[in-house]
Design a protein that fits this description.
The complex is a heterodimer of chains A (228) and B (295). Chain A is of the alpha/beta class. Helices cover 32% and strands 25% of the residues of chain A. Chain A has a domain of 64 residues. A four-stranded antiparallel beta sheet of chain B has the order 2-3-1-4. In chain B, helix 2 packs across helix 9 and helix 7 packs parallel to helix 10. The two termini of chain B are 19 Å apart. The chains are: A alpha/beta (228), B alpha+beta (295). Bound molecules: adenosine-5'-triphosphate (ATP) and magnesium ion.
C-alpha cells in the first residue's frame, strides 16, 4: 500500500534527511521505524501524510502519487490517514468529546452522525467516561488516547505515529501500544517511529532502521537492535 | 457546506470578540472611506445638476464702460435690443446697483460711497435675455466685441469654472477615498491575520484531519466580509441621514440652489457603499489568507 521509490529529502537549509530510500509496506502491516536521533524517521513519516514532499523520487500510497498530487487534493488524502504525535496536539479549550468530534465537523459530516461516531470511538479507546473533561484534566496516557481517537475516527487505512509513547511512562506506553495493536488487528496499516526499545523488542513486528537518511536494516519480526 | 454553516458562524463571532478594538478600527476606517465616497458622489451629482441648470439660463450680463453717460447707455441698450436672438434687455444702473449693495450690507447710500473711496464702483449693467439658449455663446461673443461694453458674463463662464472645479474635486475625492480604502483593506487584513495566528493550532489540526482549504478559509473570509459590510452599512446610514439633513437645510436657507433629490441615485449610492464595504472586506481577508493555506 505504501511505496517509496528512490526517495531523497534535502531540506532548504541543506540538511540531507533522507537519501535514496526504497521501501514497500503492505496493507495491514505494523512497521516500526527506528534509528538514532536525526536519522530521518520523522521526515519519512511526514512524507507519508504529505506534510513534506521529497526532493527526488516518488511516494505512493494506495497507488496515489503524493508528489504529483495537487495541493487541493491533499485534504482528501488526509481523511484516509490518521496521525498521532508525541505531544498529542489537542485543543485546550475543547472537551474530549469536542476534540474528537472536531475531526468530523471540519470535513462536513452531519451533526447526528458526528455524535454517534464520536461516542463509539471514545468507547473504543476507553474514554467514554471522560467525555466532558478538558485535556488539562487528563493524564498523559488519556490525552494520547484522545489523539488516537481523533486519528482513527474516520477509519483511515493508514495510521502514522511519530514517537506516540515518547512522553509516557512505560506502563501507560504499553496501554497505548495495546490500543494500536487492536487498531492494527482491525485492518489499519500502522507506521510508527519510536525510540522505545522494549516495545519494539516485545512486539516482534517489522523493523526498519534508518541511519543518516538511509535504510540500514529491514527485518520482519525484528528487534530494536541498538545496544543501550 | 450546509453542515458547516453553524461552525463558520460561531467562529466568525468568536474571532470578532477576540480583537474588539482592531475590529472597531477596521469598521471605522471602512466607514470613513465610504462616507467620503458617498458625499463626493452626491456633491458631484449636485455640481453636475447645477451646471445644467445654469447652462439653461438664458441671460447674459453685459457691463457698460464706466465713463458712458446715461444717454449713451440708453443708446447702447436699444442697439442691443435690435440684435437678432435678443428677447429683451433690462438696465440696472450703477445707482441701483449701489442701492442694492447698500441694502444687503445695511446703512445709507452716502456712507457707502465714501466708504468705498468717494466714487460709485458699480458699472451700469445690461441684462440680456435670449430667445434660444443655443445662441447664448454666439451672442455673448458679439457683445464682447462691442466697444461700449467692457465685460460680458454669461452662464457658460460659471459652468466652465464649476466643471473645472468638479474635475479637481473628482481627483482629490478619488485620492482620499483610495487612501482610506487601502488603509481599510490593510486593517482588515491585519485583523484577519491576527485571528489566523490565534487559531493556528486549530488550523494545524484541521489540515491534519483533512479539512478542505475552503472550509478553513470560510470563517476568515466571512469575518473580513462582516467587518467590511458593517463599515459599509454605517457609511450608508451616515451619508443617507446627513444628505437628507443638508438637503432640508439648503432648501430652507439657500432657496435658489437646486438640490438633487433622486430616489434612484439614493438607492444606488447606498447599495454601492454596502458593496464597497464588502469588497474591501473580501480583499482584506484574501490578502491575509493567500499564503498560509498551501496544503
Ligand atoms: N523542517 C526542517 N528543516 C530543516 N531541516 C530539518 C527539518 N526537519 C528535520 N530536519 C533535519 O533533517 C534531519 C532528519 O530529521 P528528522 O526529524 O527526520 O530526524 P528523526 O529521525 O525524526 O530524529 P528524532 O529521533 O530525534 O526525532 C535532521 O538532520 C534534522 O536536523
Ligand atoms: Mg523525529
Amino acid at each position: 500500500m505504501i511505496q517509496l521509490t528512490n526517495v531523497s529529502k534535502i531540506y532548504l537549509n541543506g540538511a540531507r534527511a533522507l537519501v535514496d530510500v526504497n521501501l514497500k509496506i503492505g496493507k495491514g502491516s505494523f512497521v516500526f521505524l527506528v534509528g538514532p536521533s536525526g536519522a530521518g524517521k520523522s521526515t519519512l513519516i511526514k512524507l507519508l501524510y504529505r506534510e513534506e514532499t521529497p526532493t527526488r523520487g516518488q511516494v505512493q500510497i494506495n497507488s496515489k502519487n503524493l508528489v504529483r498530487m495537487k495541493d487541493r487534493e491533499v485534504p482528501y488524502l488526509r481523511r484516509n490517514i490518521g496521525v498521532i504525535f508525541q505531544d498529542f496536539k489537542l485543543l485546550p479549550n475543547k472537551t474530549v468529546f469536542e476534540n474528537v468530534a472536531f475531526a468530523l465537523e471540519v470535513i462536513g459530516v452531519a451533526k447526528s452522525e458526528v455524535r454517534n461516531r464520536t461516542l463509539a470511538t471514545l468507547e473504543l479507546v476507553g474514554l467514554k467516561a471522560k467525555e466532558t473533561a478538558y485535556p488539562h484534566e487528563l493524564s498523559g496516557g488519556e490525552q494520547q488516547r484522545v489523539c488516537v481517537a481523533r486519528a482513527i475516527i474516520n477509519n483511515p487505512a493508514l495510521l502514522v505515529a511519530d514517537e506516540p509513547t515518547g512522553n509516557l511512562d512505560p506502563d501507560t506506553a504499553w496501554d497505548i501500544m495495546e490500543l494500536l495493536y487492536d487498531i492494527n488487528k482491525r485492518g489499519t496499516t500502522i507506521v510508527m517511529a519510536t525510540h522505545a526499545r522494549a516495545i519494539v523488542n516485545k512486539m516482534q513486528k517489522r523493523v526498519i532502521a534508518i541511519e543518516n537518511g538511509r535504510v540500514a536494516r529491514d527485518e520482519e519480526k525484528g528487534g530494536y537492535g541498538y545496544d543501550a | 457546506m450546509l453542515n458547516s454553516s453553524g461552525y463558520i458562524f460561531r467562529e466568525t463571532i468568536n474571532s470578532m470578540k477576540r480583537n474588539p478594538w482592531l475590529s472597531l478600527a477596521s469598521v471605522v476606517t471602512v466607514m470613513v472611506s465610504l462616507v467620503i465616497l458617498g458625499y463626493s458622489i452626491f456633491f458631484l451629482a449636485n455640481a453636475a445638476n447645477m451646471a445644467k441648470s445654469f447652462e439653461s439660463e438664458l441671460e447674459i450680463g453685459a457691463f457698460v464702460q464706466i465713463e458712458y453717460t446715461p444717454e449713451e447707455v440708453q443708446d447702447l441698450k436699444s442697439q442691443i435690443e435690435q440684435m437678432p436672438g435678443v428677447e429683451s434687455v433690462t438696465l440696472v444702473t450703477k445707482e441701483q446697483a449701489l442701492e442694492e449693495f447698500g441694502k444687503t450690507i445695511g446703512g445709507s447710500q452716502g456712507n457707502i460711497v465714501s466708504d468705498v473711496g468717494g466714487t460709485n464702483p458699480f458699472p451700469d449693467k445690461l441684462t440680456v435675455k435670449v430667445t434660444d439658449p443655443q445662441n447664448v455663446k454666439a451672442l455673448a461673443s458679439s457683445l464682447e466685441s462691442n466697444p461700449g461694453l467692457y465685460k460680458v458674463r454669461y452662464g457658460q463662464d460659471f459652468v466652465d469654472q464649476l466643471l473645472k472645479f468638479t474635475q479637481w474635486l473628482r481627483w482629490i475625492g478619488f485620492g482620499v477615498v483610495a487612501a482610506f480604502g487601502v488603509a481599510a483593506v490593510v486593517l482588515i487584513s491585519i485583523n484577519v491575520k491576527m485571528n489566523v495566528f490565534s487559531r493556528r493550532r486549530e488550523i494545524q489540526i484541521m489540515k491534519l484531519v483533512g479539512a478542505s482549504n475552503s472550509f478553513i478559509r470560510w470563517p476568515f473570509l466571512i469575518e473580513g466580509l462582516a467587518l467590511g459590510l458593517a463599515g459599509g452599512t454605517l457609511a450608508a446610514v451616515i451619508v443617507g441621514l446627513g444628505y437628507n439633513w443638508i438637503t432640508v437645510y439648503v432648501q430652507s436657507t439657500l432657496t435658489f440652489l437646486p438640490v438633487v433629490q433622486n430616489e434612484l441615485l439614493f438607492r444606488q449610492v447606498s447599495i454601492g457603499l454596502l458593496l464597497g464595504g464588502m469588497v474591501m472586506g473580501a480583499l482584506g481577508s484574501l490578502f491575509s489568507l493567500q499564503k498560509f493555506l498551501r496544503a
